[in-house]
């Protein structure tokens, strides 16, 4: 189950060609796993916190897509921790 679709993600990235579809689909899956790991969430919790999870996933895909060759995974993880703080600490 993905909270974000390929067309929605391509629109967010402002990509209007099909050449990167496979890459973007892979990044969507990676983003979901990363958001679940950093947010300490199951798939059910991911769906329960849909809006925050969607924004975190779109941010992750965008970051990884734009920084394919130079991604700073530590910085990405820190940003996701900040975005997902409430979920990580069980506040919601």
UniProtKB/TrEMBL annotation:
<dbReference type="InterPro" id="IPR006450">
    <property type="entry name" value="Phage_HK97_gp6-like"/>
</dbReference>
<protein>
    <submittedName>
        <fullName>AraC family transcriptional regulator</fullName>
    </submittedName>
</protein>
<dbReference type="Pfam" id="PF05135">
    <property type="entry name" value="Phage_connect_1"/>
</dbReference>
<dbReference type="InterPro" id="IPR021146">
    <property type="entry name" value="Phage_gp6-like_head-tail"/>
</dbReference>
